[in-house]
Amino acid sequence: MDCMSMVLEGLSNGCRRTFAIKVLRAEQWGARNGVVHSMRRGGPFRASSCFSGGRHSMRSHLGMLWSWGLGVTLALSLGACAVESLEEKVGPPENAVSQEDDAALTRERPEASLTWDPYADAVASGTTATVLNSSAALGAPDGQAATLLGLLNTALVLDLGQGEEGTGDLRVYYQGLSLALVAQVDFLKADGTFIGSSSLHLMELGLGTHIAVATYPGNVPYRYVRLRGSVLALYLVDAVETSLRPICGDGVLGGFEVCDDGNQLSGDGCNSVCTVEPGYACTGQPSICTDIDECANGTANCQPNEICVNTPGSYTCEPDLCAGVVCAPLDECHVAGTCDSATGLCSNPTAPDGTLCGGGICEAGVCRAPVLDFQPHQDSPAGTRPYGVAVGDINNDGRLDVAFTLITSALVSVQLGNGDGTFGAASTFPVGSNPKFVEIADFNGDGNADLAVGGYINSMHSVSILLGNGDGTFQGRVDYNVNSADPSGVKVADYNGDGKLDIATANFVGSTVSILLGNGDGTFQAAVPHAMPGTPNSVATVDLNGDGKLDIVTGNYNGRSVGVLLGNGDGTFQSAVTTPLGRFVQVVAVGDLNGDGRADVAASLFNDKLVSVLLGNGDGTFQSAVDYPVANGAGDLHIADFNGDGRADLAGTLFSSNAVGVLLGNGDGTLQPAINFAVGTGPFFMAVGDLNGDGKRDIVTGNYSGGTSSVLLNASH
Predict the structure, then answer these.
(1) Helix, strand or coil for residue 30?
(2) How far apart are CA 233 and CA 244, in angstroms?
(3) Burial zone of 303 (CB within 10 Å; 0-12 exposed, 13-18 middle, 19+ buried)
(4) How many CB atoms lie under 10 A from the CB of residue 533?
């Protein structure tokens, strides 16, 4: 077959080029139709069987061949330039690809991987045979180009690759032209669906590679781009490069987006164009936007007489209505409040219930007169003739237990507490005959409660020490002689300031007070007696003169007086000083009855149905005694606040009346008339403690005549 040559002048590189045309039969169309794979640059030239003739006859032949439905292959011979070839490309006509309305498309966006390639990977089906060297447009720009002719609806379809779809504009790298022209770019989805078109303005005429941008008109990912020529014009495509356009509202940050919270709503910190709104800070992906509190971070600009009020994205400066307002407590049952800047009003919070107020206690912000009350007594067997009583945690369970001396049985009885004011069955431990008083303390520093018992034990006036095992049981007793003095009272304290517990005993027969200094290991030094005239019957310990050293107070039965031994701080004492009361003194108790910070003394006068109060002067001396009548048989005494009003009260056993009498304190050293609460038969000594954990002081008595213990649970309110 003869060949014809057609020379196209005015090409950008100045080369003389010759086209050769190979005609294929119509039946060859189907065999060549389908997906076209990429071809390497610089492949062999395989065109043959040329037409001959001038430019006009070539154009006529080509137009006729296309109308016959035949495919064509154009091979470009570049005169003095390199010769390249193109494998035949065929495919469906352009109108075989359907178009869709962009508004109907769902918003999609491919996720770029670490290997995402923005350049074309393959030449795709639909590329026409009038594109020469189509594979030269694959990959990154390298100076080699595919040639698109404007005649016969030339189209170059490029595949960007699966997972490498674009969502932004398309950059087209092209070789300089001799004549500026406008081409078209079609964008297609992965299934070949048409998305939209954009003009491609190729304006650069100089040598080298230039860039033109085709604006992407859609909002869904595109996989294929179809470059179409301009009529009777020729241009050379080196490469195409896609981009990922940020989609505001998809929750993925990119490009122009400063924030993206997954929506296109304004007013939530990230506005409809994905920029941060004033007064907000946005972080993360999707963006989480938080209001900036200008009032808290100090960036607000309010005047001194204004209050900063934070608002979403901003703040306001409001008048400070609290300027000069002092929110003082309304009364004793309220505390200082805070001012509301918006209203200028003060809050008036109530004081905690139980707060002292004008002779009463606060309840729900109201001052109420305290009501002293105890539940009916609950009795349990304690053993024969219970006498002395003490409370403490004997088995280390955090609950108070009780110990009694059984004066006729040579035993100590222990009842372990249940924590609710009830006690378990009594357990007894031998201590020798005639035990009177008992104290609970840790004498050897092992953390377990021990017992000190005083009395006429086994024909010896002594104190017995029972070291505790920590489980409610005790080791065998060790006796310490107190100089044949019949100890009628026992008090444990650190009399020499060495941090070790010592023992003082009031010795009825010998008219002395004995001091046994502790060694800290549960043993004691020999007793040292101190003269106390008048047969002391009980002993108490307190700092009477405010020198920081413990002093001793005794109730002197036959001496009808209160005795004082001022301590030297080393376990020794000054000479005794007595204050006459003119009556037989049974028991003494110490405490601050008038709230002046000085120790006062109360004494029970068993035979006279009285208790006497001696207010302390703070120097070891007292004011004149004041007597208060009580029922018959005043015995043991305790000073404590029993009704919760913050004032010291006085409670004591009434042996002959089978009761405990409570004289409420007025806070000035005077007492109200006694209120009696029934207990078991013949109470002589009592102990005070919180037996049920409600924070109130309860009472337990040893009922000498009844052989029981009585518990009075405090029900004051």
Answers:
(1) helix
(2) 31
(3) exposed
(4) 15
How many residues in the chain?
Answer: 717
Question: How is residue 345 annotated by DSSP?
Answer: P
CA gap 505, 550 in Å, rounded:
15
* Beta carbons of 588 and 562 less than 8 angstroms apart: yes
* Strands of the sheet with 356-357, listed across from one edge: 356-357, 360-363, 366-368
CA distance 523 to 639: 31
Q: What are phi and psi of 658, to 5 degrees?
A: 50, 50
Q: Is the separation of the CB atoms in 450 and 467 below 8 Å?
A: yes
Among 511, 503, 507, 518, smallest CA distance to 550 is for 503
Cα separation, 157 vs 172, whole angstroms: 13
Instruction: Tell me if residue 80 falls in helix, strand or coil.
Output: coil
pLDDT band at 458 (very low <50, low <70, confident <90, very high): low
Q: What is the pLDDT of residues 529-587, one digit of tens each?
A: 999 999 999 999 999 999 999 999 999 999 999 999 999 999 999 999 999 999 999 99
The tokens describing 625, both together, are 């005694």
Confidence of residue 360 (pLDDT cuts 50, 70, 90): confident
Contacts from 603-606 at CB under 8 Å and sequence distance 24+? 603/555, 603/562, 603/637, 604/555, 604/634, 604/635, 604/636, 604/637, 604/652, 605/581, 605/634, 606/633, 606/634, 606/635, 606/655
Cα maximum dimension of the chain: 159
pLDDT of residue 187: 97
- Residue where the block lists tokens 């495509």: 237
Whether the CB-CB separation of 365 and 334 falls below 8 Å is answered with yes
Lookup result for tokens 């790298």: 173
Residue 329 and residue 341: Cα distance in Å, rounded? 18
**Partners of 174 in the β-ladder:** 210, 237
Domains and CATH numbers, the chain: 131-243 (2.60.120.260), 248-320 (no CATH), 323-368 (no CATH), 533-678 (2.120.10.10)
Residue closest to 554 by CA, chosen among 570, 538, 542: 538
* pLDDT band at residue 459 using 50, 70 and 90 as cut-offs: low
Look over the chain and give the mean of its residue pLDDT values, rounded to a whole number.
Answer: 83
Contact between residue 351 and residue 365 where contact means Cβ atoms under 8 Å apart: yes
pLDDT in tens, 639-675: 999 998 889 999 999 999 999 999 999 999 999 999 9
Nearest alpha-carbon partner for 65 in 96, 28, 101, 92: 28
User: Minimal CA–CA distance to 565: which of 638, 499, 506?
Assistant: 506
Instruction: Judge contact between 226 and 146, C-beta under 8 A.
Output: no
Instruction: Name the 3-class secondary structure at 55.
Output: helix
DSSP, residue by residue, 534-580: S-EEEEEEE-SSSSSS-EEEEEETTTTEEEEE-B-SSS-BPPPEEEE
pTM listed for this prediction: 0.58
Question: pLDDT value at position 318?
Answer: 87
Q: Is the pLDDT of residue 428 over 50?
A: yes
DSSP state of 173: E
pLDDT in tens, 587-638: 999 999 999 999 999 999 988 999 999 999 999 999 999 999 999 999 999 9
712, 679 in Cβ contact below 8 A?
Answer: yes
Helices (H), 325-433: none
* Interval 472-517: pLDDT, tens: 999 999 999 987 667 889 999 999 999 999 999 999 988 999 999 9
Residue with tokens 């020798």: 432
- pLDDT tens, residue by residue, 307-328: 899 999 999 998 888 888 999 9
**What whole-number distance in Å separates Cα of residue 181 and Cα of residue 149?**
12
Q: Which two tokens stand for residue 436?
A: 């009177």
Considering the chain, what percentage of its residues have pLDDT values greater than 90? Answer: 66
Instruction: Answer whether residue 10 shows pLDDT above 60.
Output: no
